[in-house]
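F.,

This is the one I mentioned.
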């Protein structure tokens, strides 16, 4: 039997995704016993649920298909899947075959779920006939293009013949139909493998669950009392077992708020009275209906699919805290309750629960509309006249129109909710949430400015002699490409093996060597700590030396507001190779760096400097890396020095905390003729061929950042470029499903759908964007700038450390060479950037299948070709005539 692919959930949560624990209570079936195949329906699927009255379910407000629909909306809000009810009351498999070609609802499926057999059992149709008919139905579906892996056969739900309601007063059963259903089930499992289709058994677990229920009361049943049709909770049980068969029974991602923040990009703020953060759920709670509560009573582990748990560490156990999401107060909880976990999905004021309630209501409307159409199919089949079938075609169109509109509304609401950022606040009772909001507001931007000369003081992590990329180098590229008309100078003053004390000795004159590179700087970035931590230096001494460095800069005329204290990048002590066999860490250097980080922030507040934390977000990034590979690292394998990807991330986190904007340029071409731009100029907008061709003159004022191979890899892992380098192009009024090629000065730079262009595409990511081409040229020079800086700093290190193998003269020579080369490279980079932003580019957006070819409508080309042919044919005829004449003459 072909296995359905098991797609693991990759549902993002803010901090981490916890593993689920399964508990099997009485009446529950272990997954392995009922699960034959695993798969999820995919975006764009049209899934037909072929069945009888149990699927038709006109007798209840909702059926198992709608419960499945709600689950998929919850877990995969970005997928548009049509779940189509093809159940018809009283149908056997043969009846389905009879109506297959006359019921338009069977057209357009690419997935099918089959649940049939109850009517065959009641009518005492033989197992052989049932299996033969089922095989014909499968072949019919395959003839329509479905593969075996696209077809799921469900063993039929049981006839509840053990229920007391199935027995008369003398103890005789009214029906023994379940014996035949059991035989059907046994054969289906065997035949499914032969037919190479997917299979899941609903019969066995539902029968066993019914038996468990009847131990309490013989009249207990999952049906509406007729022992045949599952009531609403029975339909929910069916859906749950199908989800188990798909391997889809998973909890929502759990949200853990730790005592110490571990992610800088989630707007995390915490003080002693509360915590505030931005939360993007990306998947949603569902199953708020009473039927779900009844299901969890029957199968306690089913609660997992409706849970959305929030855990908060570090609050006082007995103190009460108010939990809010947005403007919605969800309730008051003690620190102990928050530590043990709060199920957000059951809190009535949770805006996502409110959405789930609304979706459940709309889902029931969908079911009602579908059941009405299936009743129309039943009537047409009963009447079986051409007029009845013709009328059904109109009924189908009306139902599809109503169902499509309802699905679009549902999907829009779900997509909006999943994409939204929610502010979660947990505040001690009596403390003002407004004060917490105010305190959590990000600090003012402290970007570098035109005319600044910025010195980056640090150790080998700043110097980076082992790569062409350092975090100052990444910043250098950002500022040159974003502000090409500025005069900004960055100086890499990092020196290998240096501590803050070494820098003090150098710039106070104690080392006996003079470093002219510090002269003339107007702003400074200070990042030390790694070498101090490796030496086991105490925090107090470290902070004291950073304070003295700041005072030294003050003495040179640099105010504290022009100083940035940067918390050092982490020592990677969590990778698996840093653990001994007994589980103990070999090195714990980062414990010291963590202490430095906490105290450095306090020092920054005291002195009034700016502060950038590279330690915390880099630690989080390392953790994400090691969730995939326990020994992976952002360092060059020494646990200390960031490799290129690590330096890029450090530069990104620095820019993010500086308040660096993402916008290179923003162009919005609207179909009504409106043009909106930011940091760019657009003119001469032309539309041709009813949206097949759009062109305009484009003059951006900035360049995108270069996407080198190292940046591309970092972006693939951490999605950084959309946050700091976005050259947005948005065009509305195009055909959403059509593909368009975007040209820049006649060079194709990207291919996008009309839908993508309407939402906005990032041209910065296009390799042949002329701005990107210029940026890559700049980055090549920028890495040379980094390398020449590192060479000078290496000479300085030799003159001030260890055996002091270099002299002041060597330093002066190296300084002069560095200064000249760095200046030349800087000028070249700015020249490239300024030349690029001085140009105006012709942008063309062309429908690949449209009526435009080479800027003209195809009919104009046809006319042109015809005219050209008309003009050239007489000339060609004359040429041919002359050639024949000469040939004849030659023969004579």
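My design for it:
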């Amino acid at each position: 039997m072909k296995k359905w692919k098991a797609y693991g959930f990759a549902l993002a949560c803010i901090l981490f995704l916890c593993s689920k624990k399964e508990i099997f209570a009485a009446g529950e079936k272990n997954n392995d016993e009922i699960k034959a195949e695993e798969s999820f329906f995919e975006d764009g699927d049209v899934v037909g649920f072929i069945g009888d009255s149990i699927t038709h379910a006109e007798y209840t407000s909702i059926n198992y298909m709608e419960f499945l629909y709600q689950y998929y909306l919850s877990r995969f809000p970005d997928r548009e899947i049509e779940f189509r009810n093809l159940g018809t009351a009283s149908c056997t498999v043969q009846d389905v075959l009879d109506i297959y070609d006359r019921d338009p609802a069977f057209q357009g499926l690419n997935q099918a779920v089959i649940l049939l057999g109850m009517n065959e059992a009641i009518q005492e149709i033989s197992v052989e006939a049932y299996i033969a008919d089922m095989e014909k139905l499968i072949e019919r579906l395959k003839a329509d293009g479905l593969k075996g892996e696209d077809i799921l056969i469900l063993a039929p739900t049981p006839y509840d013949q053990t229920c007391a309601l199935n027995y008369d007063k003398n103890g005789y059963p009214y029906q023994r139909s379940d014996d035949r259903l059991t035989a059907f089930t046994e054969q289906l499992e065997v035949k499914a493998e032969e037919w190479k289709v997917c299979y899941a058994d609903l019969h066995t677990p539902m029968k066993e669950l019914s038996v468990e229920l009847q131990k309490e009361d013989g009249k207990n049943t999952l049906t509406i009392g007729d022992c045949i049709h599952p009531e609403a909770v029975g339909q929910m049980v069916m859906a749950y077992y199908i989800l188990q068969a798909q391997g889809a029974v998973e909890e929502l991602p759990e949200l853990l708020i730790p005592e110490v923040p571990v992610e800088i990009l989630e707007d995390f703020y915490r003080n002693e009275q509360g915590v505030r953060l931005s939360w993007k759920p990306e998947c949603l709670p569902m199953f708020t209906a009473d039927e779900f509560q009844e299901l969890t009573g029957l199968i306690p582990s089913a609660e997992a699919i409706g849970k959305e748990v929030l855990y908060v560490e570090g609050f006082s156990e007995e103190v009460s805290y108010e939990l809010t999401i947005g403007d919605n107060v969800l309730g008051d909880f003690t620190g102990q309750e928050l530590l043990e976990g709060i199920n957000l999905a059951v809190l009535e004021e949770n805006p996502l629960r409110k959405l789930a309630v609304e979706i459940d209501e709309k889902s029931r409307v969908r079911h009602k509309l579908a059941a009405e159409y299936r009743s129309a199919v039943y009537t047409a089949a009963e009447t079986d006249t051409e007029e009845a079938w013709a009328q059904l075609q109109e009924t189908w169109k009306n139902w599809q129109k109503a169902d499509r509109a309802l699905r679009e509304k549902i999907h829009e609401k779900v997509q909006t909710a999943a994409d939204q950022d929610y502010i979660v606040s947990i505040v001690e009772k009596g403390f003002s949430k407004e004060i917490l909001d105010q305190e959590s507001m990000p600090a003012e931007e402290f970007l570098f400015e035109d005319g600044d000369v910025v010195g980056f003081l640090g150790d080998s992590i700043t110097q980076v002699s082992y790569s062409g990329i350092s975090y100052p180098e990444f910043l250098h590229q950002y500022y040159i490409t974003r502000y090409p008309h500025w005069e900004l100078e960055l100086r890499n003053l990092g020196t290998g093996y240096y501590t803050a004390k070494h820098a003090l000795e150098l710039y106070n004159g104690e080392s006996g060597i003079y470093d002219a590179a510090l002269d003339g700087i107007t702003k400074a970035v200070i990042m030390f700590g790694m070498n101090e931590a490796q030496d086991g230096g105490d925090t107090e001494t470290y902070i004291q030396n950073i304070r003295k460095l700041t005072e030294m800069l003050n003495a040179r005329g640099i105010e504290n507001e022009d100083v940035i204290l940067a918390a050092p990048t982490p020592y990677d002590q969590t990778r698996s190779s840093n653990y001994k066999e007994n589980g103990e860490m070999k090195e714990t250097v980062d414990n010291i760096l963590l202490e430095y980080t906490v105290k450095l922030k306090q020092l920054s507040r005291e002195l009034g400097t700016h502060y950038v934390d590279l330690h915390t977000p880099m630690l989080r990034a390392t953790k994400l890396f090691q969730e995939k590979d326990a020994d992976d690292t952002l360092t060059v394998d020494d646990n200390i020095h960031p490799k290129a990807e690590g330096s890029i991330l450090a530069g990104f986190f620095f820019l993010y905390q500086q308040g660096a904007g993402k916008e290179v340029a923003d162009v919005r071409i609207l179909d009504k003729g409106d043009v909106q731009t930011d940091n760019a100029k657009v003119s001469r907008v032309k539309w041709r061929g009813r949206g097949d061709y759009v062109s305009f003159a484009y003059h951006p004022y900035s360049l995108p950042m270069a996407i080198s191979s190292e940046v591309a890899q970092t972006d693939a892992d951490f999605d950084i470029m959309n946050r700091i380098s976005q050259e947005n192009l948005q065009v509305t009024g195009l055909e959403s499903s059509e593909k368009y090629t975007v040209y820049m000065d006649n060079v194709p730079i990207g291919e996008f759908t009309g839908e993508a262009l309407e939402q906005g595409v990032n041209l910065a990511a296009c390799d042949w964007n002329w701005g990107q081409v210029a940026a890559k040229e700049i980055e090549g020079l920028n890495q040379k700038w980094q390398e020449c800086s590192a060479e000078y700093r290496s000479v300085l290190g030799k003159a001030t450390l260890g055996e002091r193998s270099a002299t002041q003269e060597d330093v002066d020579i190296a300084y002069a060479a560095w200064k000249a080369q760095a200046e030349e490279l800087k000028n070249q980079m700015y020249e490239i950037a300024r030349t690029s932003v001085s140009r105006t580019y012709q942008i063309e957006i062309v429908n690949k299948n449209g009526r435009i070819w080479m800027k003209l409508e195809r009919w104009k080309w046809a006319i042109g070709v015809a005219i050209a042919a008309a003009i050239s044919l007489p000339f060609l005829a004359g040429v041919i005539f002359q050639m024949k004449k000469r040939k004849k003459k030659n023969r004579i």
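The two ends are 83 Å apart (CA to CA).

Talk soon.
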